[in-house]
Amino acid sequence: MGSNNFIADINPDSMEMETMMESRPSDNINISKKNSTAPQNIYHQIFAGSWNVGGVSPPDVLDIQEWLRPNHINPPANIYVLGFQEIVPLNAANIVVRSENRKICEKWNSLIRAALNDPDPKNNITQDFRCIISKQMVGILLSVWVRSDLCQYIRQLSVSCVGCGLMGCLGNKGSVSVRFWLHETSFCFVCSHLASGGKEGDQRLRNANAAGILSRTTFPPGPFPNFTTKILDHDRVIWLGDLNYRIYLPDATTQYLLEKQKWNLLLEYDQLKVELMEGHVFEGWHEGVINFAPSYKYYKNSELYFGCDEKRKHNKRRAPAWCDRIIWFGKGLKQNQYDRGELKLSDHRPVRRFLWQKLRSNFHY
């Protein structure tokens, strides 16, 4: 599904053979590429973020630092994995033709580059992040950014797209996945948009989408025996996106608990958590504690949830839900922060997660 074309600041085929640019020391890593007499434990932080932008093209002045750099500090992560859904309207022309909209991808990547590489106003220190891969399938965009001094340690970068929307194969729903090795550890990142719908039983469609993505996503075989080709073969896996799971409660009850900010009570009826506990989907995956308001559904450019403004008439009601999620699989990842941004461009709020990872490396840092 989708073409093999993607956008990147660098040539992935040469990543493991050459230094991308002069290394920049940071607050927590001292760079010196020297062979070590024994493997070293090193630590990196990953930022994983997801945002359904509702088919809205971002204005040139959109500032996404609030989402990527809380309090406008220096980028707190070494790796940024950013997933978007509905970067184009999901109309018949975009779904059937399946052509990549390079202009809209470049617009989002330009905003990301500006947010990550903008100097910290407190100390005027500038980081240098590079896009190692950016891939679109209809409305889904997955863009991965790495601090430039780490690019030389990345190898075997590849991408896989799975469509599971109309007729079970079109790209209005589905996933874009990226995998690579960083030092001796393999990573896989999955950005998905699963089946929508708030009716009883719709969660089974989402479960089926997830199962299909896990079974159909395949990466090219590499040069080594038993080379990882499936999502769960990798050491660390992070899945992010608009998973579209809703809340098993009447709308009036959901609205009442929402007004009282009773997140724990609402989450007892969250479809994804129920499906996980019952073993229907994502067996062995982790999410952690949610301490933020539902990310969906808002009036655009508003702080009001859809249906909460009595002055506006609606043909349909959309009960709020935690549609936008970030989960992970594998050992060696530790959650540092899980919350949401407050950008109001669409009817979804972006979500973000910081994860610490411990790696083994044959190089001194």
UniProtKB/TrEMBL annotation:
Keyword match Hydrolase: yes
Superkingdom assignment: Eukaryota
InterPro entries associated with the record: Endo/exonu/phosph_ase_sf (IPR036691), IP5P_plant (IPR045849), IPPc (IPR000300)
Gene Ontology BP annotations: phosphatidylinositol dephosphorylation
Record bears the keyword Magnesium: no
Pfam families: Exo_endo_phos2
Gene Ontology MF terms: inositol-polyphosphate 5-phosphatase activity; phosphatidylinositol-3,4,5-trisphosphate 5-phosphatase activity; phosphatidylinositol-4,5-bisphosphate 5-phosphatase activity
Keywords: Hydrolase
Domain named Inositol polyphosphate-related phosphatase: residues: 40-363
Family: Belongs to the inositol polyphosphate 5-phosphatase family.
Record PANTHER family: TYPE IV INOSITOL POLYPHOSPHATE 5-PHOSPHATASE 9, TYPE IV INOSITOL POLYPHOSPHATE 5-PHOSPHATASE 9-LIKE
Protein known as: Inositol polyphosphate-related phosphatase domain-containing protein
Organism expressing this protein natively: Prunus dulcis
